[in-house]
Design goal:
By secondary structure, the chain is an all-alpha fold. It is built from 14 helices and 2 strands, in the order H-H-H-H-H-H-H-E-E-H-H-H-H-H-H-H. Strands 1-2 form a two-stranded antiparallel sheet.
Length: about 350
C-alpha cells in the first residue's frame, strides 16, 4: 500500500482547506436568543405574559393571592389532562374520548363502591383498571386497523357517553350516582385526590401538585429517555420511525394508556370533591385539553411540542376563565376569548417555528 499524500493548498488560494473537516453541528455555539426561538413553548409564554398583564389592569382583584390559588386550581383541572394529550399529539394522534373518560372514571369508582358496599378504595382500583383497559382499546384498535385516531376515539366518545348515562340510570334510577361520603375509606381517598392546603391567603388544591408532578415526569420522559425519542419519531413520521426500529405501535398504545391514567386521576378528583357524579359531565372538555396543548406549541401534525407548553396553555385557560369573572364581565364571552387565543397562539407558534428553522 502506498502512503497517503496530503493535499497542499496553492499559494494565494482563499477559503478553507479542502482536506479539513466541517465542524460538528452539535458543537457549534448557539446564542441564548436562538435557543429560545427553538423552544415550542415560547409563543405560549409570550401569550401568558400578555394575558396576565391584561387582566392585572382590567381586574384589581386578579392580583390578590387568594385569586392566584383559584386561577391555579382552574388551570390544574385542565392541565392534568392536557399533559398526556400533548404527548399524544406529539406522537401524531388525538383522543376525543378524553373528556367523557374522566366522568367514566368517577362513575365506575362510585357505583362499584356503592353497589358492592365495599371500601371506596376497591372502587378506585377497579376504576383504574377499567380506564387503562379503555386506553389500551383505543391504542390497540388504532394500530391494528390503521383508521384515523379521530374516527376511533370519536366512536369511543359516543360509546362512553351512552354507557355513562345508561348504566347510571339502570343502577341508580337517576342521572347521578348515590352519595358515598359515609363509606369506609372516603376520607383517606379525599386526602389523596381532593384535599386542600392553605398557605397564608392562598388555598392550594392537591390537583395543583398532581399537575406539577405530571408535567415534570412528562418533560423528563420527552427529553431524557428513549421513550421520548420514540414519541417524537412516531409523530414525525411513523413509517420512517419503524424503518429505524422504533416500536411505533407500542409507543402509541402507551400514550393512549397515559391519557386514560390521567383521566382516572381527574375522575377521582371529581368524585371525592362532590361525592356524587352527574353522568352527563365531561362532554366537550376534550377540546379544552387539545386547545391547551395547541396553545402550548404542539402541532396538529405531530412531532413537535412539549409538556411544559401544555402547562402554560392550561395556565392561560385558568387566567382567562377566572380573569373574566374578576373583571365582572359577562362569562358568555369566555369561549370567544378562548377561540381568539387559540388562533393567535397558533399563528405565533407557526411564526416562531419558521424563524427558528430559518436561523438554525
Amino acid at each position: 500500500m502506498t502512503p497517503a499524500t496530503t493535499l497542499e493548498k496553492p499559494a494565494g488560494q482563499d477559503g478553507p482547506d479542502p482536506g479539513s473537516k466541517a465542524p460538528d453541528a452539535r458543537l457549534v455555539h448557539r446564542s441564548l436568543a436562538r435557543r429560545l426561538m427553538g423552544r415550542p413553548e415560547l409563543g405560549s409564554v409570550v401569550g401568558a405574559a400578555a394575558v396576565f398583564i391584561f387582566f392585572s389592569v382590567a381586574a384589581d382583584s386578579f392580583l390578590q393571592w387568594s385569586s392566584f390559588g383559584t386561577v391555579l386550581y382552574a388551570a390544574s383541572t385542565i392541565g392534568i389532562m392536557a399533559v398526556p394529550v400533548a404527548l399524544l399529539m406529539i406522537g401524531g394522534e388525538f383522543d376525543l374520548s378524553a373528556g367523557v373518560m374522566v366522568t367514566s372514571s368517577a362513575l365506575v369508582a362510585s357505583m362499584f363502591s356503592y353497589q358492592m358496599t365495599a371500601n371506596v378504595w376497591a372502587g378506585v382500583a377497579v376504576s383504574l383498571l377499567v380506564m387503562l383497559a379503555i386506553g389500551f382499546f383505543n391504542g390497540f384498535l388504532l394500530t391494528r386497523t390503521k383508521l384515523p385516531s379521530f374516527i376511533i376515539t370519536l366512536g369511543t366518545f359516543l360509546m362512553l357517553t351512552g354507557l355513562n348515562l345508561g348504566f347510571t340510570k339502570l343502577i341508580s334510577g337517576t342521572v347521578s350516582t348515590k352519595s358515598i361520603a359515609d363509606m369506609e375509606g372516603f376520607e383517606s381517598a379525599r386526602v389523596l385526590f381532593a384535599s386542600q392546603l392553605t398557605i397564608g391567603d392562598i388555598d392550594l388544591k392537591v390537583t395543583i401538585l398532581w399537575w406539577a408532578v405530571l408535567v415534570a415526569v412528562a418533560t423528563w420522559v420527552l427529553l431524557r429517555t428513549r421513550a421520548g425519542n420514540w414519541i417524537f419519531a412516531a409523530g414525525g413520521g411513523a413509517d420512517a420511525a419503524r424503518a429505524v426500529g422504533v416500536p411505533v405501535a407500542r409507543t402509541k398504545i402507551g400514550l393512549y394508556m397515559a391519557v386514560a391514567f390521567c383521566a382516572w386521576i381527574s375522575g377521582q378528583h371529581l368524585l371525592f370533591s362532590f361525592d356524587v357524579v352527574q353522568s352527563g359531565e365531561g362532554v366537550g372538555n376534550e377540546f379544552l385539553y387539545i386547545i391547551a396543548a395547541v396553545i402550548g406549541g404542539c402541532l396538529m401534525t405531530g412531532g413537535y411540542g412539549s409538556a411544559i407548553g401544555s402547562a402554560v396553555g392550561a395556565f392561560i385557560f385558568g387566567m382567562t376563565s377566572k380573569g373574566i369573572v374578576y373583571a365582572q364581565w359577562n362569562p358568555d364571552w369566555f369561549k370567544f376569548f378562548l377561540g381568539a387565543m387559540l388562533l393567535l397562539a397558533t399563528l405565533l407558534n407557526a411564526w416562531v417555528r419558521k424563524r427558528a428553522e430559518a436561523t438554525a
